[in-house]
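User: Fold this; tokens only.

Assistant: Input:
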Amino acid sequence: MVCETSSPGRLQGAPIQQNGKTPTPDNDKVRIAARWYVQHGHTRRRAVVPTLRKRFGLSAAECIASLLIARSMARGDRDG
């Protein structure tokens, strides 16, 4: 299935799943934010995307990628 980045209702730059897996960004900030969320996500007091955007300077799409990596880390997948 091919997804166009300009299709209505889709955020530009959001991760596209291929073969059931989300591509891992090469951005260190995204991985650092993922590790932080795994370790400290339970202590947050506001919505997670605005928190990650402010704390790590991420775009909304990078926040989503970070949360997907954090979920993989929490499940014990190697390096997210």
